[in-house]
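User: I'm preparing a small set of examples for a lab meeting where we compare how different chains pack in three dimensions. I only have the primary sequence for this one, and I'd like the structure in token form so I can line it up with the others. Please keep the answer compact; I'll paste it straight into my notes.
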Amino acid sequence: MITFKTYRELEGAFNKDEQGWCGYCIEVICEEGKVLYRHFFDANGRIESEKVIEGNFIKIENDIAYITLQNGHLLEYSLTEKKLIKF
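Assistant: Understood. Below is the structure token output for the 87-residue chain.
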């Protein structure tokens, strides 16, 4: 089975009210085929509006790991680049 953890900031900016960096982020943790997809807003270390969706590893094809989430969304993770390429 496949195991990996990846994090990606979708967008972010310095927020003077929070006195630091704030961003919309996703994190995917895959352990032995079980997947947790986490989408959240990081307000300078304070997590807000967090959404967690479970999923499952489907297959590996051409060094791409395919993952399906419970909501039907398909994720693609590049094993060679070690990052999400479709999210």
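A couple of notes for your slides: The chain has no helices and seven strands. The CA atoms of residues 17 and 43 lie 10 Å apart.

User: Perfect, thanks.
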